[in-house]
Amino acid sequence: MLLDTASLYYRAYFGVPDSVKAPDGTPVNAVRGLLDFIGRLVQDHHPDDLVACMDADWRPHWRVELIPSYKAHRVARETESGPDVEETPDTLAPQVPIIEAALDAFGIARVGVAGYEADDVIGTLTARATGPVDIVTGDRDLYQLVDDARRRRVLYPLKGVGMLQLTDEAWLREKYGVDGAGYADLALLRGDPSDGLPGVPGVGEKTAAKLLDAYGDLAGIIAAIDDPKSKLTPTQRKRLDESRPYLAVAPKVVQVASDVPLPPFDPALPRVPAQPEVVDALAHRWGLGGAISRLSSALLA
Asked: For residue 161, what pLDDT is reported?
């Protein structure tokens, strides 16, 4: 089981009331929400391995070089070296170190790699896995990793921690008209304002799905631009032709990496906390006794 950790703690932050606070008044709603989410996932799905994948760089320079608008609207402050600073709610940012400390104290593997997003860590671990993989994320970009033959699916939170959409290829074909491998092509054609991806003008989700159904993949669509016998409308042909520079670089930006140089780590799900005294201290310091007790019970079960 691979966790898109930032995606999940953002959901926890907005899903758990900010009245949940530590004894000193510091909000800990994201911390408690994430710990409860992990406990419920362990309880319901019994993974053998669990990896909390982290955004060491939420906006990698190599992606920005290809598409400068990539996540540009979410930059709070640019930096000359290292990742740009992302806009984050004032009361969420201080909770991230607490989340990291709790994961480490429990012994839950936490993996991030400089220059890469959590998506890329997830893509690499998924590519390396020899058994089934559940990817837990609120980011639809990772639908591209769904693969029934290799037993890869996405668990997408719909409401709270108890309602997950089990995303397999049948669900993707029903919803979008593509399988996992086709989702990245659909996403780059359609564009995604939340990620600063412009897409092809005039090509929305339905048109993108129809183009992929007709021509197979992005390469087939590009070939159709130059084929006078293809059934592209004049407007589609013109817009796709004018979008060639974007279409040439977008796949590398949209597709998650599968070759990230990962550090050594132990993915095995812990049964007891690796540092029980630290876990106890965190529970006391931040008023997390209930969430920590529930996660501990789930790990032992």
From this structure: 61
**Residue position matching structure tokens 């974007």:** 246
CA distance 29 to 14: 8
User: Reduced to 3 states, what is the DSSP secondary structure of residue 297?
Assistant: helix
Closest CA to 210 of 177, 183, 239: 177
The number of residues making up the chain comes to 301
Residue type, 274: A
Q: What is the pLDDT of residues 145-174, one digit of tens each?
A: 999 999 999 999 997 666 899 999 999 999
C-alpha–C-alpha distance, residues 12 and 16, integer Å: 6
Strands 75-77 and 85-86: antiparallel
Given a contact cutoff of 8 angstroms between Cβ atoms, the answer to whether 60 and 116 are in contact is yes
pLDDT at 26 over 70: yes
CA-CA distance, 285 to 264, in Å (whole number)?
31
Alpha helices (H) in 46-94, listed in sequence order? 61-66
Alpha helices in 26-160 (DSSP H): 29-45, 61-66, 95-106, 118-128
- pTM of the prediction? 0.95
